[in-house]
Design goal:
The chain has a single domain, classed as Molybdopterin cofactor biosynthesis C (MoaC) domain (Alpha-Beta Plaits). It is of the alpha+beta class. It has a five-stranded antiparallel beta sheet. The protein starts with 23 loop residues before the first strand and ends with a strand. InterPro entries: MoaC (IPR023045), MoaC_bact/euk (IPR047594), MoaC_sf (IPR036522), MoCo_biosynth_MoaA/MoaC (IPR050105), Mopterin_CF_biosynth-C_dom (IPR002820). One of its GO terms (molecular function) is cyclic pyranopterin monophosphate synthase activity. Keywords: Lyase, Molybdenum cofactor biosynthesis. It is an enzyme of class 4 (lyase).
Length: 164
């Protein structure tokens, strides 16, 4: 375990000074899952949700969220994102250990810069799941957003990290 970088010697929060760091290619992959009733999943897959194409909207919302991460997370640096990809995949019975059905969101974000892009990938996954919830809440208020987590990060001083 390393030390907290967003806390100064007085215990105050701060934005980390990355000005002396070299620019490197960085990538992060994150995921999230929104569980729902099977009937809700069927509406989404069949394109019959009242608000329109749920998965297309969630993909666009995730990309937009990645680009706005520094406006949402106080100590994040604004980044010149070079890649933001959001994939939404229906998950049916038997495909998860817990048996839940829903939508798995996987996001990939990239940048050439001085600091990592994990927060952008995580924000994209979170907002894509929130968008699915928003578009389907009229029929299923019991949906649950879960398992938002980093799967991979690469680049920078620490190099490659993969979730086991």
């Amino acid at each position: 375990m390393g030390e907290l970088t967003h806390i100064d010697e007085k215990g105050e929060v701060r934005m980390v000074d990355v000005s002396a760091k070299p620019d490197t290619e960085r990538v992060a992959v994150a995921e999230g899952f929104i569980g729902m009733h099977r009937e809700t999943l069927d509406l989404i897959v069949e394109g019959k949700a009242a608000k329109g194409d749920v998965l297309a909207c969630a993909r666009v919302a995730g990309v937009m969220a990645a680009k706005k991460t520094s406006e949402l997370i106080p100590m994040c640096h604004p980044l010149n994102i070079t890649k933001a990809k959001v994939e939404c995949e229906p998950v049916f019975e038997g495909e998860r250990e817990d048996g839940r059905v829903g939508i798995r969101v996987t996001t990939t974000c990239g940048v050439t810069g001085k600091t990592g892009i994990e927060m952008e990938a995580l924000t994209a996954a979170s907002v894509a799941c929130l968008t699915v919830y928003d578009m389907c809440k009229a029929v299923d208020r019991g949906m649950e957003i879960m398992d938002v987590r980093l799967l991979k990060k690469d680049g920078g001083k620490t190099g490659l990290w993969l979730r086991q």
